[in-house]
Structures are given as structure tokens and as C-alpha cells.
Amino acid sequence: MTIMRYRLLGRSGVRVSELCLGTMMFGYPDLGVATAGAAAGALKRFAEAGGNFLDTANRYAGGESERVVGELIRADRDYWVLGTKYGLSTDPADPNAGGTHRKSLRRAVEDSLRRLGTDHIDLYWVHIWDGYTPIEEVVVALDELVRSGKVLYLGISDTPAWLVSRAVTLAEERGLTPFSAIQVPYSLVERTVERELLPMAKALDLAVTGWAPLGGGLLTGRYGSDRERPADGRRAGSEISERDLAIADVLNAVAEGRGASSSQVALAWLRAQQARALTIPIVGIRNEAQLADNLGLVDLEPEELRRLDEASALSPEFPHDFDGEKYAHGDAVVDYHRG
């Protein structure tokens, strides 16, 4: 087992653990972490391992996730880097109960602060882009929250790269608070974010938190071409492709070869993607046993990383398969240093 390391959250100086604990299941009945009492052991174990980074949202469990998390961290609030989200509707009868606009933002942040029992949120996420609110309104409204002291840092989740880039540029040009992080789905079976979102994050110095790092259960060792599909699996048969099974096969073989679980190896691969962008997996759990397994951190050897990369590599798409240098300069080799 390796020791938990820390990363800087984008351009900020705040240090977050290299694993983020996802608390989406906190507060749901009959799912193993339904109450503060059931979740307390998991949170304690995470802290003892060096974890300090938490992820929740105002929509998780109808707000119960925030209440449970707030209760658990209240005695040591300053230790935790607490992130929560806004933007998804919390009341279908109210057309303004969701969205990223200022009216939704004002209500959402006040409600989250009340449920969390705190006077500030360390990292406030735009949960998803709503497609209607002007980007300028969102950037200015979020900056106002930072200036008020209710929010310290900003992030944005599940949003196209061009929109995030525009928001960061607007903030920089106007002296407003830019985003420090993005949140995207990222795993061995979901690498499409490597085409646009991760290069953008690296160029703009944004941290990347990856949700579903175990591919919705596909990368836990329960799936493979030689394994019977679990009856209680989260994936229907039609959702599992031959590519998914081929990746799972290589993952399971690497895990068996080094005496680790498939989940540990899948997380290790994601943690190793720092050359692409500063990447932090979000580990969502239903019970303490799952967390204990995920905390069994391993560092993969170059050959193991190569096997996993090759099994899960994306096929190139435009413009990444377009040789712009050839068309711009012909067959000549251009030495820009010599002019």
C-alpha cells in the first residue's frame, strides 16, 4: 500500500487528497450508508488514510447527503475540503428551482449551507450546464459568492470544453474568480474526455476529478468474457460491449498478476494519468468494505500501464487524426528556432 499523496486544486494553493470520497449514496435508504451512523465509519477510515476531499451535491438523496456529510464533519470542519454542487432542479413544480442562473444559485447555496451546517463551501460546482443561462451571468454570479466568503473555490461539471474555456477566459479578462477544477466521467472504459476536456484542463491548469472511475461496476472484477454476469449488477447486458469486456479481461489479468483487486488497479491507472491532466478519482461507496478496498493504493509498473493503455485506447478522430503540419508546410521540416 502506498501513502495517500496530495494534489494542488488547479491554480489554487489548497491541497486535496489524491482520492476524493463521493458521498452520493449517503442518506439513501437501504443502500448501506443511509444514515450518519452508517457513514461515520467510512469517513473515519478515509481520514485516517489521509483523505480530506469530499464530493456531494444538493440533489443527492434529496438533500440528505449534504445533511449527513455536514453532521459528520462538523467537529473537524476545517480539516475537510468540502465540495457540493448546484444546477439540477430540486422542485419540478418550480421552473426556477434549477438551472445555473443567479436566482437558482442564490437559493441553492443558502439551502446547501443550511443543510451542511457550515458558513462556507470550499469548492462549489456547477453541476451541469443548463444551455440557457448566459455564461457571463454564471461567471459574475459565482464570483460574487466568492467575494462574499460563502464559497472559496469554483468548479464545473459535465460541460463542453469550449464553454469551460470561454468561462475561464472571461473570468481572467474581467478580474473575476476562474474555475479551479472540472468534473467528468473518466475510466478505462470511458476515455473520450481525453480528446478535448483533458487537454483543455492541462492548458488552463484545472484539476480533473473523475466520476465513475470503476466504469459503473465494469472494472470491479465482477465482469469479464470468462465470468458470469452478476445478477445484481448495475449494467444491463445490452450496455456492455465487446470492447468493455476486452478491457475488463486485461484489467483482471493485471490485477491477478500483482495480487491486487481489479478496482485497485483501475484506480491506480486513473491516478497515473497526471501527464494528461491533474487527475483525482472520485470513489463512490455503498459500504465501508468498498472504501477499504479502494484505499488499497498501488502504483503500476510501466509495462502494466502499457497493457491497460493499449486495451482501452481511443481511436483517433478529427482533428486529432488530421496532420495539419503536413498541409501547412508540405514535406519540409520547419526549424522554428532558426526562422
TrEMBL record:
Q: Where do the NADP-dependent oxidoreductase domain residues begin and end? A: 18-312
Keyword annotations:
Oxidoreductase
* Domain of life from the UniProt record: Bacteria
InterPro entries, sorted? AKR_Detox_Biosynth, NAD(P)_OxRdtase_dom_sf, NADP_OxRdtase_dom
Q: Name one Pfam family in it.
A: Aldo_ket_red
- Protein's name in the database: Aryl-alcohol dehydrogenase-like predicted oxidoreductase
Q: Which organism is it from?
A: Amycolatopsis magusensis
